[in-house]
Amino acid sequence: MPLRIAVTAFLCFSVRAWGAGDWPEFRGPTGQGHADTALPVEWSQTRNIAWKQPIPGRGWSSPVLQKGRLFLTTAIASDSSGKLELRALSLDESTGRVLWDTLLFEHGGKGPRGHNKNSQASPTPLIEDGRLYVHFGHLGTACLDLDGKVAWRNSDIDYPPVHGNGGSPVIAGDTLFFSCDGQSKPFVVALNKNTGKELWRTPRGTKVQKSFSFSTPLVIDVKGARQIISPGSGAVCAYDPKTGKELWRARYGEGYSVVPRPVQGHGLIFISSGFDRPQVMAIRPDGTGDVTDSHIAWTHNKGGPNTPSLLLVGDEIYFVSDAGIASCLDARTGKVHWSERVGGNYSSSPIHAAGRIYFQNEDGTTVVVKAGTTFEKLATNELGERALSSWAVGGDALFIRTEGHLYKVKGS
């Protein structure tokens, strides 16, 4: 495929004015893993831990944060009755104390068998305008105020999941959007964020052997028009948030179980194409229809992530494979600057803060490296607990969810 680096589309982040220290959605205010602060470089179970709070049940949703309060979801299964409770919690950012715990959905059984790296509470909540939106895939979606009072619930969006749920929702105007990429007939759907009523749904229309995926979309602006970029099995598609019309798509063969959230910059969208052999791709989002042969700027076929999202910092794109190979490429051309083994297996998405890249593996170990075109490891930090969630950041503190706890990591 010829290299295409002429970039004509003008893109900008669709970001609201958030207060200092807020982390309102998956991967933060921009949805792309950037913290506008300096964070601790070193920590352990006995160093730079401000507090450690047990979290009931099971869930891999990331925490979100606004005005000194943390929010996350969990699923609590009863061994005796088989009943499954899906709940939202709020914690005090300063102390870790649980402020409220609201039951949102109750199911008579655990539902389809999930993957050992997933849970029934994996999608990350979303905060906007004093409301908290929580999503449990096919098990339901709800809206609460920040004191835990339920505004609406919707459990009508049904589809046959594979391995549970995963992708988080996004908001564009009055549209609350998420993907429903299940075992068959995958689609994307939009709810009215104020009422929870369905506005539209659009079939994926992609012919692949395995149609299930779990990616979180990204909202961007292209030449003054808003697009929702949503990867699924076989293709990444852009949708008009008002109507659900597909604007363009770029195909990547049989790629499935796509998890990484897109990132954008330099007039390009960057994605990873999913199992079994992920490709990292840079795509110009100013086309229409099938743009596979015209708008893919470059592809990279080695060490791409199946699960962690990509990270764009300046002129470099960073990523870590599920097997622990971290890479840094030139974002405009795809040229490899470095590729290094950082140890362990990875699900959490990396973040950037103050010129440092943070990679957390599934054993709860974080490797900190210097951002740049030469690999330089700064620290290795062990918590010793299984960790699949991505982080939240508030001020100069990291919030890390493990299998049993939520930690606040803060330098002395």
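That was protein one. Protein two is written in the same sequence-then-structure order:
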Amino acid sequence: MNETKIVAALLAWFGHNARDLPWRRTRDPYAIWVSEVMLQQTQVKTVLPYWERWMRALPNLAALAKAKPEKIHKLWEGLGYYTRVRNMQQAARVIIRNHEGKFPENFDDLLALPGIGRYTAGAICSIAFDQPKPILDGNVIRVLTRVFGISGNPRAKETNLRLWRLAETLVLQARPCSQFNQSLMELGALICTPREPRCVICPLAPHCAAFRQGQVQVLPNLGPRVRPTARRFIAFVAERNGRCFVRQRGAGMVNAHLWEFPNMEVKPDDVRVGKSAWRQLGIRPGKVEALCTIKHSITRYRITLEVFRVAATHETNRSLSRGRWIDRSRLGRLAFASAHKKILARIWASRPD
């Protein structure tokens, strides 16, 4: 297969079809890094307002390094995978301390930073510094497996190594390197999509093995899907004198440092809502009423969160050690886990201040 023609076709297509994204208007490695981390597991349309708010609030490494944890979590609220933002702040502090505040240009220096793997280091080196470093994310994997007709599972070591080598072979032939890597990602996002790929207008169709062989729908071969697991949680909105009882998740937990309404996992047939409230909150419930049900997914889990409003009539010391009573008007200043942010929106909608 002629790699030179593939590179030329992609660059020509990208020159006419690239989306006008704000992080593409700069060569600032910090701005590009922020966009790449935000885009992990997240669509561009979702990231756009987050990136713009972030860059206004924390425009450089120094601002990120010294920001308070509650500020970075609030800016990240709703993006999920919150370890990413904590790693970003750790990395910023390492750069300030070990690199005199200058964003590293060397691939190995970037790879040594917290939260930066081979893909992110390659993306920063190529896009910000125009270095011929390969990248391999979901979009690129899809394009390469289809174009080169690679039937092995991309997660398997041998196939993954082959894909990295292909990506490197292509980027070494490209000028500019920054444009080429972005063109691979862009083609996967806009044309070579997981479902209903637009092969008839794809610039690589003449070179695509999967297109010629009718294998587009079966590549990439990611193996059998993991069956989702259903889980059920109950959450309680305890209210008293215009305040709500909330708690902050501890370090090392899922959604660490974020705020939430007290909740716990229950068996599918558990109907002891009042007793659950007592055990969980240490607050003797008065009236308990259903507020809403929220369904969401985290990796392979399909979660049903049933939310109840509780009028608190009595409090024990246990509750004071596990959370705080906060005025409803001030809750919006806290960074909540996504599902609990929906609870907060429901509270405001049902009983506006």
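The beta strands are 229-240, 243-248, 259-260, 263-266, 283-298, 301-315, 324-327. Keep this in mind for the problem set.
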